[in-house]
Design a protein that fits this description.
The complex is a heterodimer. By secondary structure, chain A is mostly helical. In chain A, the strands form 2 sheets. Chain A has a 3-stranded antiparallel beta sheet. Chain A has a two-stranded antiparallel ribbon with strand order 1-2. Chain A is globular, with a radius of gyration of 20 Å. The two termini of chain A are 14 Å apart. Chain B is 20% helix and 27% strand. In chain B, the strands form 2 sheets. Chain B has a 5-stranded mixed beta sheet with strand order 1-2-5-4-3. Chain B has a two-stranded parallel sheet with strand order 6-7. Classes of the chains: A mainly alpha, B alpha/beta. Chains A and B meet through helix 7, strand 3, strand 4, strand 5 and helix 13 of A and strand 3 and strand 4 of B.
Chain lengths: 332, 172
């Protein structure tokens, strides 16, 4: 689990959830309702955090340095929230197989609510600054154009594909967690240039806020981890105070969850960069026989070859900024 | 065969169409944890890919990866992860190849997206892709002699196979 944090280090939460959901799918682990909603809140927060970093660096690439500091101010708030949720600012590792590590405290809940209230105002300010900004427009409009057919052919994913006019979102394509129970739009633009990607990501952030609000409203009461000690770690209370709990904890660490022999599964989530999928093939032990990560940054980097062709050298920086690759993930 | 499977409507159509069009090329269709896998003969891969793309709307290729089955015959497996965006269907296409001289036709002419993924499979398993436009390693250095994801490759790596920067400061 901690390894997945470091893959796309801008949105560790989605990576945790992606691996957990894949293992849960192959091993038939039931996840409690409340854990699903907590995961969704975490995923959307990390989506905002990742898009904020992209926004800051991309605008910095286009020439506005101070903007970077402003988006980092908001990212800092998300880190604080993550700290309150899971005890870590950066590498959270909060999701567990069969649920999440711990319930949201009142303090964490309060800071999430506060953030959800405050952030749309900040977002409006960003729009005010950039939407009518001559320099920003000139740098981004009609730069790095990717047509819809080309985008599908080359397999672009996430905001890249949606900026090129195809609304493919794994949250809608095959809903995981409880994404089928919340309402949200999939922002799509037809132009396929860098500006379109900017709009798509900006709108995705406000959609994320919308999802988080709905999750907070719907958040059901109940356990946050499945109560089957053969399938998930027992809670720490149990481990410290009962013999069985400790044995189960030890067994989980030592052997792990054993899916049926020969079982295969693929599960994808919509990470901020696009479709992040895990393929697992089991040989019946606690270690997978083959685990393949389908990383969105790797997929999107392939697009660069196409869209950089014929562009000005000065624009390459902005285009790479618009693709938003994270090399930790592309390297797997 | 497809009666035993619990398929969604879109998948049912796809599997039926495939088994009718290529009756002797489909080796097996099976499901595992809710995903559908179709294993086909390696020699008709491009034909089936073209059919899937043009007739059955599998226009989006999400991923290609290899599996080392570590068996004596047909050791390697290449899996294509395909999406049908119209019917919301995900299908996995599998081909197998032998350990001696592993070769598979490249799907890059059909889906351009396969290019880097196939290079990764080549890099990690040493499976050659015929007609690949840019057949080079993608992660490891060009002169690396091994294929790291084959099961016989030691977990700790082979000492001396990659030149690493020295960890001790040079003393003159």
């Amino acid at each position: 689990m901690p390894y997945t944090d470091l893959m796309d280090y801008l949105s560790p939460y989605s990576n945790n959830v992606a691996l957990c959901t894949a293992v849960e799918k192959i091993a038939n682990v039931e996840v409690p309702e409340r854990a699903h909603y907590i995961r969704m809140i975490g995923c959307e927060l990390s989506r905002i955090s990742s898009h904020l970093l992209w926004l800051g660096t991309m605008v910095m690439d286009a020439g506005a340095i101070s903007f970077f500091i402003w988006t980092f101010k908001e990212r800092e708030k998300i880190y604080d929230i993550m700290d309150r949720i899971g005890g870590h600012r950066f590498t959270i590792s909060h999701a567990r197989i069969g649920g999440v590590a711990n319930d949201l405290t009142d303090e964490a809940m309060g800071s999430i609510k506060e953030f959800v209230e405050m952030f749309p105002k900040e977002l409006k300010d960003y729009h005010k600054l950039l939407d009518r900004n001559r320099i920003f427009f000139d740098r981004n409009e009609a730069v790095g154009v990717l047509k819809t057919e080309d985008a599908l052919q080359i397999g672009a994913t996430g905001p890249m594909l949606r900026g090129s006019g195809f609304a493919l979102d794994v949250r809608k394509f095959s809903p995981y967690a409880r994404y089928n129970e919340v309402e949200f739009e999939v922002p799509t633009r037809l132009e396929g240039d860098n500006l379109a990607r900017y709009y798509v990501r900006m709108e995705e952030m406000s959609e994320s806020i919308r999802i988080i609000k709905q999750c907070i409203d719907k958040l059901p009461k109940g356990p946050v981890r499945t109560d089957n000690a053969k399938q998930a770690y027992p809670s720490k209370d149990e481990v410290y105070y009962s013999m069985e709990g400790m044995i189960h904890d030890f067994m989980m660490t030592d052997t792990g969850i054993c899916p049926p022999e020969g079982a295969e599964c693929y599960h994808a989530v919509e990470s901020p960069k696009g479709e992040l999928g895990y393929y697992i093939q089991s040989d019946g032990t606690g270690h997978p026989w083959r685990l393949k990560i389908n990383a969105p940054s790797f997929t999107n980097l392939q697009v660069l070859e196409d869209i950089l062709d014929g562009e000005m050298v000065a624009d390459t920086v902005v285009i790479i900024g618009g693709v938003d690759p994270v090399l930790g993930e592309a390297d797997k | 065969m497809s009666n035993e499977l619990n398929l969604s409507e879109g998948l049912q159509k796809t599997v039926k169409n495939l088994t009718e069009t290529f009756p002797d090329k489909i080796i097996e269709v099976y499901q595992s944890s809710g995903d559908t896998f179709v294993r086909i003969e390696a020699d008709s891969l491009i034909e089936i890919c073209n059919h899937l793309k043009s007739e059955l709307h599998f226009i989006y290729l999400s991923d290609v990866f290899g599996i080392d089955r570590y068996t004596s015959d047909e050791r390697f497996e290449v899996v294509y992860n395909l999406l049908n965006l119209r019917d919301r269907v995900r299908l996995f296409l599998k081909v197998r190849c032998d350990e001696e001289n592993p070769e598979v036709d490249s799907a890059t002419p059909v889906w351009k997206a396969a290019s880097w993924n196939e290079r990764e499979v080549y890099d990690m398993f040493g499976i050659q892709f015929r007609n690949h436009p840019d057949h080079r390693r993608i992660f490891m250095p060009e002169d690396f002699e091994y294929y790291p994801l084959r099961k016989e490759f030691p977990l700790l790596g082979i000492p001396g196979s990659i030149e690493l920067p020295s960890t001790t400061p040079e003393t003159d």
